[in-house]
Sequence to fold (405 residues):
Amino acid sequence: MKKDIDSKVVSEFKILKENPSLTYLNSASTSIMPNVVLETLNSVYSNSITSYKKSFNYKNKDNEKEINQTYEKLALFLNADKENLVPSYGTTDAINKIAFYLISKMNDGDEIILGALEHASNILPWINIANVLNKKIVFKWYKLKDWSIDLDDLKTLITDKTKVVSMAHIYNTTGQVNDIKKVKELIGDKVILFVDAAQSISHVKIDVKEMGCDYLAFSAHKAFGPLSLGFIYIKDIKNAKPFNVGGGMNYDYSKDTYIPKEGRLMFQAGTQDVPGIIAFGKSLDFINSYGIQNIKDHNYALKEYAEKLISKLPNIKIINKGIKSSILFFEVENVAAEDVAYHLSQDNIIVRAGTCCVKIKNDLYEQYKSVRASFHFYNTKEDINKLYNSLKSGGDFLDKLFTKR
Fold:
């Protein structure tokens, strides 16, 4: 039995309950941790005095059991096999590791396909690592059609030299969902498909087997979990090589070689984030208690409501109009995004302003004028009404801002 998404949800978040005037509309940056996750982190740090598999301390077995349970929960959540999941520090860390591993095997002239609406963390690592490894990689850029990837254009970009297509499941600006399954069917098995799932992990159902992707990564803090923790799905993990090496990932080593452990164990060099991984298991329980489909429906309904309401204001343009998402992406005529965000912050409304880590110029919108209000299921129509009233009361934004300052 799933819990209802209603006014009681707020009570599950300490910061929202203790700050009733706070309107948090920046979940695309980071979601708020619920009480159960905070309590779990505190409990593990307070009651456990050893790291994972480092001693025979009485809590060690409990930690090991709960870590394994988190991997089992995540496997069900993604429809993956537990052995195909490995930890990272987050999405950015994961992309850097995957990019280094894949580019190190490429030859000069090989191709990687990226997109202009990708987050900086899904562009810069590929370019930087190609330079670091002194590989003359050819970067191609897929086009957009109706705000999502243009499959017809993508088809024309694929050649025998194409090795990787790297793309977001959901763009962090417009909130558009890309059809990953169709992309994989188009590019085929010879081209590796990496999926940035940072924005989708707690918003829509992810099925890695149905998608057919080769790699997928996300950050726990986008899904009600701790910071500096993430996970990577590796489809062909049996033939993969470790991203980094050290203690815990080897069976044995000598002065000139080492024997790695098998499967996901070879990707666990060093001390694992024991409290974070255990707490993230509670994050998954929390999401499942409400249901990912119910969360999606709630958030999409909020966006639709916000779009209809805020479209009434004459000086505001909705950039992602008509897109089903958890994001309202807009701009205020003749006003910089930072000024809009400052004005809203005076009413205790938190949004994201400016480029949102997407800095390649495009013909779709002006990055430095854009404002992003992103929702999650702790938000309500009352939050949208507050956003609307604050935008409406701004009037001449510049006069109002100078008065307040």
Observations:
- The chain has two domains: 7-30+291-404, 38-288.
